[in-house]
Amino acid sequence: MKNYEDLGFSKVDVQREERSGYPEVIFGEGKTPEQIRVIMSILVEKHKKAMVTRLSREKAEALIKHFPEARYDDTSSVLLYGNTDYEYPGSVMVMCAGTSDLPVAEEAALTAEWMGCPTTKLYDVGVAGIDRLLGHRKEITEASVLIVVAGMEGALPSVVGGLVKRPVIAVPTSVGYGTHLQGITPLLSMLTSCSSGMSVVNIDNGFGAGFQAALILKLAADIGGNK
Amino acid sequence: MKNYEDLGFSKVDVQREERSGYPEVIFGEGKTPEQIRVIMSILVEKHKKAMVTRLSREKAEALIKHFPEARYDDTSSVLLYGNTDYEYPGSVMVMCAGTSDLPVAEEAALTAEWMGCPTTKLYDVGVAGIDRLLGHRKEITEASVLIVVAGMEGALPSVVGGLVKRPVIAVPTSVGYGTHLQGITPLLSMLTSCSSGMSVVNIDNGFGAGFQAALILKLAADIGGNK
Amino acid sequence: MKNYEDLGFSKVDVQREERSGYPEVIFGEGKTPEQIRVIMSILVEKHKKAMVTRLSREKAEALIKHFPEARYDDTSSVLLYGNTDYEYPGSVMVMCAGTSDLPVAEEAALTAEWMGCPTTKLYDVGVAGIDRLLGHRKEITEASVLIVVAGMEGALPSVVGGLVKRPVIAVPTSVGYGTHLQGITPLLSMLTSCSSGMSVVNIDNGFGAGFQAALILKLAADIGGNK
Amino acid sequence: MKNYEDLGFSKVDVQREERSGYPEVIFGEGKTPEQIRVIMSILVEKHKKAMVTRLSREKAEALIKHFPEARYDDTSSVLLYGNTDYEYPGSVMVMCAGTSDLPVAEEAALTAEWMGCPTTKLYDVGVAGIDRLLGHRKEITEASVLIVVAGMEGALPSVVGGLVKRPVIAVPTSVGYGTHLQGITPLLSMLTSCSSGMSVVNIDNGFGAGFQAALILKLAADIGGNK
Amino acid sequence: MKNYEDLGFSKVDVQREERSGYPEVIFGEGKTPEQIRVIMSILVEKHKKAMVTRLSREKAEALIKHFPEARYDDTSSVLLYGNTDYEYPGSVMVMCAGTSDLPVAEEAALTAEWMGCPTTKLYDVGVAGIDRLLGHRKEITEASVLIVVAGMEGALPSVVGGLVKRPVIAVPTSVGYGTHLQGITPLLSMLTSCSSGMSVVNIDNGFGAGFQAALILKLAADIGGNK
Amino acid sequence: MKNYEDLGFSKVDVQREERSGYPEVIFGEGKTPEQIRVIMSILVEKHKKAMVTRLSREKAEALIKHFPEARYDDTSSVLLYGNTDYEYPGSVMVMCAGTSDLPVAEEAALTAEWMGCPTTKLYDVGVAGIDRLLGHRKEITEASVLIVVAGMEGALPSVVGGLVKRPVIAVPTSVGYGTHLQGITPLLSMLTSCSSGMSVVNIDNGFGAGFQAALILKLAADIGGNK
Amino acid sequence: MKNYEDLGFSKVDVQREERSGYPEVIFGEGKTPEQIRVIMSILVEKHKKAMVTRLSREKAEALIKHFPEARYDDTSSVLLYGNTDYEYPGSVMVMCAGTSDLPVAEEAALTAEWMGCPTTKLYDVGVAGIDRLLGHRKEITEASVLIVVAGMEGALPSVVGGLVKRPVIAVPTSVGYGTHLQGITPLLSMLTSCSSGMSVVNIDNGFGAGFQAALILKLAADIGGNK
Amino acid sequence: MKNYEDLGFSKVDVQREERSGYPEVIFGEGKTPEQIRVIMSILVEKHKKAMVTRLSREKAEALIKHFPEARYDDTSSVLLYGNTDYEYPGSVMVMCAGTSDLPVAEEAALTAEWMGCPTTKLYDVGVAGIDRLLGHRKEITEASVLIVVAGMEGALPSVVGGLVKRPVIAVPTSVGYGTHLQGITPLLSMLTSCSSGMSVVNIDNGFGAGFQAALILKLAADIGGNK
Fold it and tell me: Taking 50 as the threshold, does the pLDDT of residue D227 lie above it?
């Protein structure tokens, strides 16, 4: 039995759900609508669900003609097909520092939701107005996992990390100018954070953060129980 | 009631256990033995346990005179005092790519253990000898959280990430030369990984990885239950 | 006797075949179709064959009007004229990690073929699905030279290098985002690889990898024989 | 009349007090005690005061033999001679994020004091324990100018900048490891800050921050008055 | 009482004037005209004035339809609404090194003026023609705060810093090519300056420099008086 | 049957000779003499030969006590034990640009020799004295594989690459100062070379170049024959 | 008497010819045709000649309407008005490594000629075909000053520097891809060159190289004579 | 007739004087005293003079035992043997910005003098005290060639370049801290300078600047004469 479908230009990893818990997700950037359609057909047939990230509206419209049940989100440029039929215990809070970080934050939230996580959102709570953040301290400390998205100097995750006893996944964004260096600065800042319990994903990688958050809730669901 | 002890040169955060789940951990580098002794006394009195990282043997010996119950680990340069009296469900696997990555791997393992995590270890399984890694596939897929430590080109976490359905925390190390750039290369490599479900901490930050792994198991213990 | 044709804007190196074993190859980027036509005419007259890399479809169409026997490959943007009339012993395997690496991989394969090498191809075998790679272990170990193309974190050559007793030429690609740094990350990663017997060419330089692979097979053809 | 003393190896700028408001300050690093002694003699004779920064204890001891009234501060490695005989209105608050930032913070404070500024200090108030910082909100908002010193990810100035209506001068320090890049990371972070009203000086340049803070208070003293 | 208006995509900080002395300023880049209009409405209602930076002419025209009293400046891409009804003592001099630095210089000047500062301007006085600069020495030394804008190698602030006894705020610009590195070179140059009393803001951040200059004059107005 | 010996701190890859054609080579830097001794014992027992690179004289002397037949080379810091009992056809020429590149060049030469390659050497032929190089044109064009070692600007491989029809492996060295950036400059220069048929290894990685050269000659020996 | 014309947006340095030997040259990039026209009018009136660099054909055509005697060169994007009426002794040789470096080489040549230098040209003599270069050894050694333009790895100046007893000015170009880093690699390479007697200008700065070459010939004309 | 002496570890280029106008100069760093002695013997025998740069006092003392006529300069770490018996017309002015730049400035001056140039020196004239510089305007404009040495932000050459009609050679130094980046900042600053007629050499490369300055005076001597 083969563990992938060989399409020549691509080897679709149809065994990934067994191995990794979730079907392969399609990275839409740099693929033609036709390439995506073929890969998506295999995934839909096998798993009854599919997700495409970094997909332009144009490509999305072409795909929706073939998959009318699919739904496209303009903010995050994500296309979803199918749903999870379960929900994990706990919840993922997605926070962001500024209005311009929304596309990345929404990609994270949609990913976590599609993988079975309840999510809450807290947007535009950058550290330059610390009271906006601290006004939500209760919700923040109640979340199970926190995805903290920030561009500019990337300081928000450090502050959040100091408020909670839960894992924080920091996502730097490419929103900024000059010394922001297309996201290198918040990335370095987050990696150098003085807060413990925090880890970091690639610039603008909302998907990766949502994915890891879901793996954490899944783990809690699978092995949890009081100490 | 004050939430910290003010020592002038330091404000010891004695409320951190309530807030973050664990007492403050002392970063030993750049502090004098006397500074560490004072801070450690407050933490030991308050929490009955303490941990000091990046502590040279010389400083450790000076401290052990004051805290004879403390124990020092030469490989990781960690000093521990006290123990957790509980153990989380699940387990943390600490892997490393090469022999020279051991200090960082051991720092991660000791941190996770001291915080209540059962740990397993799989060392010197770099990708240039992929069979050494795959020979342990079963143990790898059974771990709850995986800390993957690697210097050089930092490829190990990408391979491990593709084998498991659990969160992977990647730790780049400063072991290498030339284009390794003191750990920048494995760091960038890990952040750019094609594997989902993986996040990254600072170069040589075994402590941070162990800490986040423990927060994940703690979460599972606190909120877990089958979906 | 002059060893080049002086065109004013260019000195065409008509002696290169004698010196280097192959005629000069034209780098199409940044040259006008007319400049390329003139240089190509000299090469075709002298060598009965020519190769142009990094050529847009528009320029290619203009050139094919003058050289109707020439053939253009859309994936790699390479134009070829004429053929080798020999074939080296052994074979070059061209591998790539992801679908988006195809243009570079095909440039490498076409170059090696045009220079007289039998080639085999193994595409979309990134390390996050290691079984897709290892399922081809036999073919991999039988190749004479391996060209391994990868974007993202560039981990594939390290794994391949550990499987074979043959030279590996690694090619980083500019496919990725954020910390990928337009290919700098896989480049650094490949240079820092823990695998021996591997060397690296410039980002996206499929041509250079194919060229060196052909020189290796040519050497084997010229001097080979059992020890 | 010459506006400097020409010592061959140095041209001592004896007119700087008139021009810039303060005598030249000696940068001690890389000068021999004898060179410093000669320059300092000229300054003391002319201005009755002198300041030497980045001076090792060894060199300081040699100098104190010649200038017994001089006083040396071990934390900041600053040597001072003479005093201002005035005090500006307002005050400079010097804050730092961690214990290891003290040398830079003290250099800033000593500079500002020596130039005539009342100072207050608030140390070890990093953002990972935001309550330590906010517990001092009243003092913070009452300061006239704030010098905020931070290593690691350099997030403290962003938070402080959002709390006050006064100018903030941020000073990154070289305290950190790995992605901290010897202070480049907090520097970039501070420059990219989402807080308005903040500017930045060179890594570890406590002197520069203290100097500018004093110029600001001096300006207030010179031209001030209600709008 | 809430200290911000929650618009979902944005939390407008209506308390900032009390806290920071000035209402929130809208960063126009990356926001839709509709988003800006909503935020601006809240600010206008609350404060009777508003400022939008980095706003294209197209967006400005759309906004002026809603706010006919607003005025747009093409050089700096700034939109202003309302006026201060006071003027601080002292003055801000805005200088720039070359003609191409004008947009940044004008952004700084408009910001300072809108916040209540008298300003003077001295443009195109780069150090390669030092006499153009020194011909204005008197005006330069009379300014209260100096904003010095420069692209290329960023040398102007160092020279100006040596002429005055007042705070200098240096602004690097993205004007240049090659080794100018989009403004990184003048930024590094300014941070490394041998002049005391100087601090630096982000590349092209005329707004930030103008804002800090205004805070300094405001401080002088609030607390000033002779020593 | 296990394909490695598990020493706890290391998993010795005793199957590598079968898989890769050569036994594992020990990287001496960062290992204790005792660790090296244990690993070396296993390798010597299994393969009758061993090689240790980057070994200080002190560690070498400690090892020679256990392995009296081993021989140490001071220039390259390599320890060798045992010999190949065969010699490949063809030859490897090792060239270097300057006297200070000798340690890297000798590491390359010793590696290739120990693996069965005849070698020739051409040292101190930097391009600033091009006649020194071209005086050896005949030997250069007769070599089967060329290893070209250069620090400073790394120009030598580009010139050599244009003279020959054989594969060139370029090795940048860390010899230089200032803009040489510890070898980054010759590395980038070599990767960007206008010569075809050339690939590059890590800075100072003479071993890697020698290893790949030997794999090329081995291939020629294994599969060679005229086209 | 004023030493510049103040246009508000620009201060035209009309005294530069006296001070620097040549009138101010207009950098065309980022200026409007109208701005250039005004500045050019002043220069033409004062000096009877003018030069504009980095000028697009569109802007050039608009300017030629006002200055019909002006002539525009498409390769270098330079506009010239007027001529020198003298010619320096000696000659400037402008060399370039590849066809794509022509625009920069021609900018250098036109600059030097317009300033009074006889020039010779030697193009497309990259080091990968060293015989093309050495075939011109006689002309090369006879030049008075050599401007050597190169993209890619920038090796040509090192070789030329070793052939001559005259000053070499190296110009890196932005022609290349991948590790070429938009010209940073040849720049670093040239700065690190093992050849003495060579200096470097900014990436693509043909103008600067031509200008310095002319200053050198002018010096020879002004002070020369046999020792 | 051989054009070099082959010492095995070095090929001494005894023909360089004919080719380049000057004998080979020995770079002392990284060579043993014995290696230097052998090379120096050949050069002294052939040319009656020799120069060694970057030579420690220890090595110098060892060499002076063999070459008692040699003289060593402690500031620049240069060893000289023999003298020129001619003097070029014109003069080289060596300037530096700060006291710590003296070693590099003296290396430049000694090199130029040893090669036959009259030199003048102007030290510690950094731009933060512009009057110290402008007080010497007459001498500056009278120099034939200007070598301008600066660490920190490297602004001095830009100002000097605007004052003179002669070629300026800028030398960045490694004197500074933090954002100075071991000399990268003044290097970039000098390359990006808005002054024409200036070129740049490697960080701390006083020798290279002195060498080029001498080639310029030599050219003037060889070909000069009024236009």
Answer: no
In angstroms, the Cα distances linking C139 to C95, C133, C164 are 11, 10, 10
* CA diameter of chain C: 58
Chain C interface test: which of A3, A9, A15, A27 (most C C-beta within 10 Å): A9
Chain H residue numbers with beta carbons less than 8 Å from the beta carbon of D31 are 99-100
Measured between alpha carbons, how far is B133 from C155 in angstroms, rounded to an integer? 15
- H124 interface with D at CB cutoff 8 Å: yes
Tokens of G134: 């050495």
Residue A74 burial by CB count (10 A; 0-12/13-18/19+): exposed, middle or buried?
exposed
Query: Cα torsion for C210, C211, C212, C214, to the nearest 10°?
Result: 80
> Does any CB of chain E come closer than 8 Å to the CB of residue H158?
yes
CA distances from G137 to B49, E28, G125, G143, G217 (A): 78, 60, 12, 10, 21
Q: Is CATH 3.40.50.1970 what the domain over D92-223 is classified as, yes or no?
A: yes
Percentage of residues in chain E having pLDDT higher than 70: 97
Q: Facing residues of C6 across strands?
A: C11
Cα–Cα distances (Å) from B106 to B75, B148, C140, F66, in that order, read 7, 12, 36, 30
User: pLDDT under 70 in chain C at which residues?
Assistant: 1-2, 225-227
Q: Is A117 a residue whose pLDDT tops 70?
A: yes
Answer yes or no: do F124 and H30 touch at CB < 8 A. no
Please give the Cα distance from G151 to G167 (Å, whole number). Answer: 20
Low-confidence ranges of chain G (pLDDT < 50): 1, 226-227
Do at least 3 CB pairs under 8 Å connect F with G?
A: yes
Cβ–Cβ gap B144/A197 under 8 Å: no
Model confidence band, residue D1 (pLDDT cutoffs 50, 70, 90)? very low
Cβ neighbors of C174 (< 8 A, separation 6 or more) are C151, C182, C183, C203, C204, G178
> What predicted TM-score, i.e. pTM, was given to this entire model?
0.95
Place of tokens 């903040």: D198
- Token readout for E17 is 């004037």
- How buried is residue E146: exposed, middle or buried, by Cβ count under 10 Å (0-12/13-18/19+)? buried
Domain positions in chain A are 4-81, 92-223
Number of helices (H) and strands (E), helices first, in chain H? 9, 11
Of C99, C132, C179, the CB nearest to A4: C132
Q: Give the residues of chain B that fall short of pLDDT 70.
A: 1-2, 225-227
Smallest CA–CA distance, residue F193 to chain H, in Å, is: 21
Rounded-to-5 percentages of helix, strand, coil across chain C:
45, 20, 40
Q: Which of H103, H52, H110, H96 is nearest to H75 (CA)?
A: H103
Taking the C-alpha atoms of residue H39 and residue H37, their distance in angstroms, rounded to an integer, is 6
Q: Mutate which of F192, F199, F203 to test chain G, going by most G C-beta atoms within 10 A?
A: F192
- Partners of D5 in the β-ladder: D12
How far does CA F220 lie from the centroid of its chain? 18
Chain D hits for B29, Cβ within 8 Å: 177
C-alpha B78/C-alpha B87 separation (Å) is 21
Contact G4 E132 (CB under 8 A): yes
Alpha-carbon distance A190 to nearest alpha carbon in chain D (angstroms)? 7
In whole angstroms, give the CA distance from residue E166 to residue E145.
Answer: 6
Taking CA atoms, C184 is separated from A41, B176, C20, C181, in Å, by: 34, 17, 30, 5
Cβ-nearest to A132 among E11, E184, E203: E11
Q: Determine the Cα–Cα distance for residues D106 and G74; give it in Å rounded to an integer.
A: 60
Note the ipTM here.
0.94
Q: Which residues contact B113 (CB under 8 A, 6 or more apart)?
A: B119
Structure tokens at G164: 């001559």
